[in-house]
Design brief:
The longest helix is centred in the last third of the chain and has 19 residues. This protein has 421 residues and is an alpha/beta fold. The chain binds xanthosine-5'-monophosphate (XMP). Xanthosine-5'-monophosphate (XMP) binds next to strand 14.
Length: 421
């Protein structure tokens, strides 16, 4: 029998670093023709990505993929909202010179509906307007400042200077794919649990020929799945790898089927290397990554970017209300194959057709984490540090890094131990 490996089974072997961690370059690709400045995509889930999340991510160099739990028209409208949103990452906070009078700064903040400004004095000062939610804006501005220090954020723009955005598609809804394409989506991400299916692949192959946008195929979990997908979908522009690893997934529990994201990425890499196209068809690792360390392992395994659900679900910019439980604040997070998400799909999209009648996801809560800017800032510094240990100066060079298997004893030693915490 073959064996599956997942993130906790491996560690990043230290390698010779030629640059400092802060100089690690994170530019990569989401799909053949769509570059990313930060290797993160947000999952197309109805508690993770609508236009607000997608616009905020694109302003900082990452990509949001709008979920499809709505009518095709509404989803196309969401794409258009990202396309018409202001591009500047400075929309997140305002920047100001040291000599700008406070009154003028507060006036500008109010006019732009922005609660915080960074004044470029040394050290930089954060000004929060009294009207806004002080704690939130202070947090967001400090996160933005640390992102500026770590990595100069650049917006992801299309040829017309608009923010880039992805959108989820069903293989059996050509009309939706065409509407999204017409609305300007840059990447259409196939959104099925098991894309290694002849009907799915032949339908998506037809769609890929009809649209201008890049089409990413998934989810897949094996080398043979990737070989079949590449053989059948002529202009395949990317692969979405991992089955059942997501934090809200119950696929493995319900069905016994599973292809952990790390193994799925290694399988995809094997297939693409056999075909001589690793790096040309980007691999997106999808599901189960808890933070920068897991993302770094997925990249070293051969991925170009990581798709995160849970990590972004706690952001202010994720759809859904904040829920207070005692003194803590949470946001709802649910699998797209959970009962609640499936009920919404069939209520809102009259073209949606069930291919299975079983729930493969759960519904829950994740801690509220403030702005996605803070989440990205933490991911970026963690990822640069991780790649620094691997001796990588870029994502392509990370592919030459080494992952090693850890023993049970090593797993114990990896965590803080033998002290009173
Ligand atoms: P994380 O771990 O980042 O995973 O929360 C997000 C990914 O999980 C997948 N997904 C599901 N998988 N049942 C599943 O088996 C579901 O209901 C479900 N909803 C999402 C998806 O690939 C997402 O990007």
């Amino acid at each position: 029998m073959r064996e599956y490996l997942t993130f906790d089974d491996v560690a990043i072997a230290p390698g010779l670093a030629t640059v400092e961690p802060s100089e690690v370059e994170l530019t990569t690709k989401a799909s053949k023709n769509v570059e990313l400045y930060l290797p993160f995509l947000s999952s197309p889930m109805d508690t993770v990505t609508e236009w607000r999340m997608a616009a905020s991510l694109a302003r900082l160099g990452a990509l949001g993929v709008i979920h499809r739990n709505m009518s095709a028209e509404s989803q196309a409208l969401q794409v258009k909202m990202v396309k018409s949103a202001p591009q500047s990452p400075w929309l997140e906070v305002l920047k100001a010179k040291e000599d700008e009078p406070l009154d003028s700064l507060l006036f500008r903040m109010e006019e732009a509906g922005i609660g915080a400004a960074i004044v470029f004095s040394s050290p930089p000062t954060i000004v929060v307007s009294s009207a806004a939610d002080q704690e939130f804006w202070f947090h967001k501005a400090s996160a933005f400042l640390s992102l500026l220090r770590e990595h100069k954020p650049l917006p992801l723009l299309d040829e017309e200077g608009r923010l880039r955005v992805g959108a989820a598609i069903s293989p059996f809804d050509e009309r939706r794919a065409k509407l999204l394409d017409g609305a300007g989506a840059d990447v259409l991400v196939l959104d099925v649990a098991h894309a290694h299916n002849v009907n799915v692949l032949s339908s998506v192959a037809r769609i890929a020929k009809e649209v201008r946008a890049d089409v990413v195929v998934g989810n897949l979990g094996s080398r043979s799945g990737v070989l079949d997908a590449v053989a059948r979908v002529e202009n395949i522009a990317g692969l979405r790898m991992g089955i059942g690893s997501g934090s809200i997934c119950s696929t493995a529990e319900v069905t016994g089927a599973f292809a952990p994201t790390l193994t799925a990425v290694m399988e995809a890499r094997k297939a693409l290397e056999e075909l001589g196209v690793h790096g040309k068809i980007p691999i997106i690792a999808d599901g189960g990554m808890r933070g920068a360390g897991d993302v770094a392992k997925a990249l070293i395994a051969g991925a170009s970017a990581a798709m995160l659900g849970r990590v972004f679900a706690g952001a202010e910019e994720a759809p859904g209300a904040k829920i207070r439980v005692g003194s803590r604040v949470y946001k709802q997070y649910r699998g797209m194959a959970s009962r609640g998400a499936m009920e919404r799909r069939f209520a809102e999209d009259r073209y949606a057709r069930p291919s299975k009648s079983i729930e493969e996801g759960v519904e829950g809560l994740v801690p509220y984490r403030g702005s996605v800017v803070a989440i990205l800032a933490e991911l970026v510094s963690g990822l640069k540090a991780a790649l620094g240990y691997a001796g990588a100066h870029s994502i392509e060079s990370a592919w030459r890094g080494e992952l090693v298997r850890v023993t049970a004893a090593a797993k114990e030693e990896q965590r803080p131990h033998d002290i009173l915490l």
